[in-house]
Specification:
Elements: H1 3-17, E1 28-30, E2 39-41, H2 44-51, H3 55-65, E3 72-78, E4 82-87, H4 89-102, E5 111-118, H5 133-148, E6 151-156, H6 165-177, H7 187-200, H8 202-216, H9 220-244, H10 263-272, E7 276-279, E8 282-287, E9 298-303, H11 311-325, E10 330-336, H12 340-352, E11 361-367, E12 370-371, H13 388-404, H14 412-432, E13 440-441, H15 444-447, H16 455-472, H17 487-497, H18 499-509, H19 513-532, H20 542-565
Helix pairs in contact: 1-3, 2-3, 4-17, 6-7, 6-8, 6-9, 7-8, 8-9, 11-12, 13-14, 16-19, 16-20, 17-19, 17-20, 19-20
The structure holds arginine (ARG).
Length: about 575
């Protein structure tokens, strides 16, 4: 249990005894300055208002009822009625001693709820580009965090493998098919070539259109060419996932095509339930709840007049499948904010159609766009889309270049490995550390800096900690030796204890920047402690040394675990 929760419980009990209405929260928060103690209870003013009594008097009555023995050595009333809480060092020591348990992943499935995390989901017609980065990185953090907490997590990679473009790609593939050992090493060129043919050659275009229909109705020839293309494209995505260090594998792919056989049923279900209606031969759902300001309902086409199904039809089928076949209790979608309307429509249809059992949570976790330093969406110098493969190798090259400017005793091979971790970590962290819903500016120099709120800074802090252990010639330290004495130790200890709370918050709201900000504060607090409190100097007595080593140990463990949940690797040396 976190300190905050313990204090909340103790205060709630005392407030009740002091005759305060149970609906008044104690409002426990970390104090902003050490002179206000470690925590504050800010709820007395609100309670006083409700009880119509003077807040400071009420605060005094609550303090009288408080049982904080062994927890806080001192409480005091401040300002208009805040209660400042000064924790007992011995209490901190004992809490910190139990922290390592909370840094281990909970047993798989120890929380029964199944959570579906829908993320990455590139369209397979083209190579992965920067537009896929945010969903892939952010979604992966949530999958990791929820799994860490013991939930059963099902990653669902809703890849786009079924759109109209595939007719064109099959037709193109057919042209080069004779050459049996076809190479699709450059998906992008292949796509462009096929698009050019489609735009300029009417015969080709007609064939491409015919092939989409044939593909969707299961024609052998088309399906086998399509499959060939999909295999190459999936291999390419998997290479990117591996390079990025995200946990997606082939088994998580549940592409659009996988729902093809359910679409007719989905439409029929919506018609039977009176939700979809015929509109000039097309099947449409009209949603009053999403009407525009003139009262015109939002219209969602689920089947075209020619019989074709759409992106939304597939998503409705997938929602139904996830809720009713898989039995998921929480569905989390990591998709660009530009699809917000689509997601609102999807959720409204699912609920209206009774596809979503009570208590199931449907969540669209939207994110903003990755911008260039010029304030426009991030592009190559010539204005093209930036391929992820190129972006990732550039990150590693740039990191290698920076590392080569520092003195280090790393071998060439070690340096390559460190450069990989730093480069990839920097890209991921730059994205994760910004409030998800905002756009963010992609800036190589800022993200690769060893100062400030960056991956390299945190990785560097970790290497500092490890170097203490190398100098002390031991692998780890005994946590029970910990005795908080100095102010910087106290501050570091309090921050360390906040870790479980931060993880709970991240799991609930899906904002990874909360964990980034926390780790940055933690690393900074560690650096302050490290400057202020000598560890290995000759004049440090052995108890103090053991206690400080224990703080190093905990700091290293929390930093490593936190970065691991963000999908970022650490290293022993830099
Ligand atoms: N493939 C889509 C795109 O690139 C994203 C799919 C997101 N997931 C979903 N269930 N709609 O825009």
């Amino acid at each position: 249990m976190s300190i905050k929760t313990i204090l909340e419980q103790r205060f709630a009990a005392a407030m009740l005894k002091a005759g305060i209405d149970a609906s008044c929260p104690p409002a426990i928060a970390r104090s902003k300055q050490p002179r206000f103690g470690d925590f504050q209870a800010n709820g007395m003013m609100g309670a006083a208002k409700k009880m119509q009594s003077p807040p400071r008097e009420l605060a005094a009555q609550v303090i009288e009822q408080l049982e904080l023995e062994g927890i806080a050595g001192k409480t005091e009333i401040a300002g208009p009625g805040f209660i400042n809480i000064f924790l007992e060092p011995a209490f901190l020591n004992s809490q910190l001693a139990t922290l390592p348990g909370g840094l281990q992943a909970a047993a798989p499935g120890s929380r029964q709820e199944l959570i579906v995390v829908d993320y990455s989901a590139p369209n397979l017609a083209k190579e992965m580009h920067v537009g896929h980065l945010r969903s892939t990185i952010i979604g992966d953090v949530l999958a990791r965090v929820l799994e860490f907490q013991g939930y059963e997590v099902l990653r669902q990679n809703h890849m786009g493998d079924w759109g109209t473009q595939f007719g064109m790609l099959i037709a193109e593939l057919e042209r080069i098919e004779d050459a049996e050992n076809m190479v699709l090493s450059d998906l992008e060129t292949f796509y462009q070539r096929s698009k050019t043919h489609f735009d300029n050659d009417p015969e080709f275009a007609a064939k491409a259109r015919e092939y989409v229909v044939r593909l969707q109705s299961g024609d052998q020839h088309c399906v086998s060419l399509w499959q060939k293309f999909i295999d190459v494209s999936v291999d390419h995505s998997q290479d990117i996932y591996d390079a990025l260090g995200v946990t997606l594998t082939r088994e998580h792919i549940k592409p659009e095509s996988a729902y093809n056989d359910m679409l007719a049923d989905t439409v029929a279900k919506l018609e039977q339930r009176g939700i979809a209606v015929d509109d000039n031969g097309a099947k449409v759902v009209f949603l009053d709840e999403l009407a525009n300001k003139d009262g015109k309902p939002s219209a969602v086409i689920i089947q075209k007049s020619g019989g074709g199904f759409l992106y939304s039809t597939t998503d409705i089928a997938a929602l139904d499948f996830r809720c009713n076949t898989l039995g998921a209790k929480r569905l989390m979608y990591f998709i660009d904010a530009r699809q917000s309307l689509h997601m609102k429509q999807l959720f409204a249809i699912g609920r209206k159609a009774g596809m979503v059992p009570d208590g199931v949570s449907l969540e669209h976790h939207a994110f903003g766009t990755m911008m260039g330093k010029d304030g426009k969406p991030f592009k190559t110098r010539t204005g093209g889309t930036v391929k992820l493969a190129n972006l990732l190798s550039e990150a590693v090259e740039r990191a290698a270049e920076l590392l080569s400017q520092r003195d280090s005793e790393l071998s060439e091979q070690q340096r390559q490995e460190v450069a990989r971790k730093v480069g990839i970590g920097a890209i991921k962290y730059a994205d994760l550390s910004i409030t998800r819903t905002n756009d963010y500016v992609f800036d190589w120099d800022a993200m690769l800096s060893f100062e400030g709120n960056t991956a390299p800074y945190l990785q560097y802090a970790y290497t500092r900690i490890r170097s203490v252990f190398r100098k002390a010639d031991c692998a780890s330290a005994d946590i029970s030796a910990l005795r908080i004495v100095e102010a910087s130790e106290h501050e570091l200890g309090l921050l360390l204890l906040q870790f479980p709370e931060i993880i709970d918050q991240l799991a609930a709201d899906a904002f990874p920047h909360v964990l980034c900000t926390y780790l940055y504060e933690l690393a900074s607090a560690f650096m302050t402690f490290y400057e202020a409190c000598p560890i290995l100097k000759d004049d440090v007595d052995s108890d103090t040394r053991a206690s400080r080593m224990a703080l190093c140990e905990l700091s290293g463990q929390v930093l490593q675990r936190g970065l691991d949940l963000l999908g970022i690797e650490v290293m022993e040396y830099m």
